[in-house]
Known about the structure:
Elements: E1 2-7, E2 10-13, E3 18-26, E4 33-39, E5 46-51, E6 58-60, E7 68-73, E8 78-83, E9 92-99, E10 111-112, E11 116-121
Parallel strand pairs: 2-11
Antiparallel strand pairs: 1-3, 3-8, 4-5, 4-9, 5-6, 7-8, 9-10, 9-11
Amino acid sequence: QVQLVESGGGLVQAGGSLRLSCAASGRTFSNYAMGWFRQAPGKEREFVAAISRDDYTRYYAHSMKGRFTISRDNAKNTVYLQMNSLNPEDTAVYYCAAALSYSNGVDGYDYWGQGTQVTVSS
């Protein structure tokens, strides 16, 4: 089992920035690719970004590329999501997830955090 706990969400004005963190415990963190997803009210959960186990490769959804940056610190068992130039359409609950191999689909991940709310005001 891998336990994931997100933090760093909150209320921010349009154009602002937030940095989300996801702390992992349980299994060996460096064995897992990590992903960030988000879910807005009434919408399906969507892929945001993912990072390979060794931090060699990073992947982004098209609409987030250039604004969001995923990173990880295997020594701290933590994955981050730096979000810049936020707009109201980014309002959602953000989830981190762990998988033994990279995926950009919800079904590809085995473990999920409880989520952290991000609200962007106009």
